[in-house]
């Protein structure tokens, strides 16, 4: 007979807001349900252009930096799964926590306004805290939200949202996006090193699977086919 106590609890995915200077978590947003699908797209940063000049041919196998990676997924929030907890505001707090990932704080806005009133010639854009997305222990990486669309589908008698579906898009921040000494750059390098370790764990194939002799140099073998 299976005992429920022996069944491990699923690891949740979510977002951690980190102080970039101290490295301490400022807020942890745990997704109520792990998304069923996760779409990832990687675009190589090739050094060569699309032209046909000699310079482009020399750069064909060169990379300017890490691939530009984006993640998209759909998250669900449902207050009916939390009926044992009083929720007079519905899921407003959960939605607000996610929305503040793309808003500056009122304090930051007031500070920028005061600087403008004092005649500051150039006001730097407001810097947001470091945002990390975690999907298991092997995927903890710095990101910037690029899309947050919310579809609210149920409300209580006070029009508080009770259920919502969120489409979330993120860009992975690499060493090409962050200053060299930034904590996020170090976290990205750790993420990339994890990929390297995982790639090294794959079992290597054999050239025979392609119909190629394993002991010959591929360039010479291919050249003989055109003689």
UniProtKB/TrEMBL annotation:
It holds the Pfam family CIS_tube. It comes from the Bacteria. InterPro entries: CIS_tube_prot_N. Residues 27-170 form the Contractile injection system tube protein N-terminal domain. This is Contractile injection system tube protein N-terminal domain-containing protein.
């Amino acid at each position: 007979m299976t005992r429920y106590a022996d069944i491990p609890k699923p690891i949740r995915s979510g977002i951690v807001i980190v102080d970039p200077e101290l490295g301490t978590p400022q807020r942890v947003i745990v997704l109520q349900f792990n998304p069923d699908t996760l779409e990832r797209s990687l675009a190589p940063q090739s050094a060569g252009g699309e032209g046909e000049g000699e310079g482009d041919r020399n750069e064909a196998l060169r990379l300017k930096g890490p691939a530009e990676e984006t993640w998209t997924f759909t998250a669900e929030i449902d207050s009916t799964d939390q009926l044992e907890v009083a929720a007079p505001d519905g899921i407003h707090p959960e939605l607000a926590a996610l929305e503040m990932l793309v808003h500056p704080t009122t304090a930051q806005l007031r500070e920028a306004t005061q600087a403008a009133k004092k005649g500051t010639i150039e006001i730097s854009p407001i810097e947001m805290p470091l945002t990390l997305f975690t999907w298991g222990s092997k995927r903890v990486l710095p990101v910037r939200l690029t899309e947050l669309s919310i579809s609210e589908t149920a409300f209580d008698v006070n029009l508080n949202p009770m259920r919502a579906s969120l489409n979330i898009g993120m860009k992975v921040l690499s060493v090409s996006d962050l200053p060299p000494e930034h904590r996020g750059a170090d976290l990205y390098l750790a993420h990339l090193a994890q990929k390297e370790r995982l790639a090294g764990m794959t079992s290597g194939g054999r050239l025979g699977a392609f119909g190629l002799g394993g002991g010959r140099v591929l360039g010479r073998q291919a050249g003989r086919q055109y003689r």
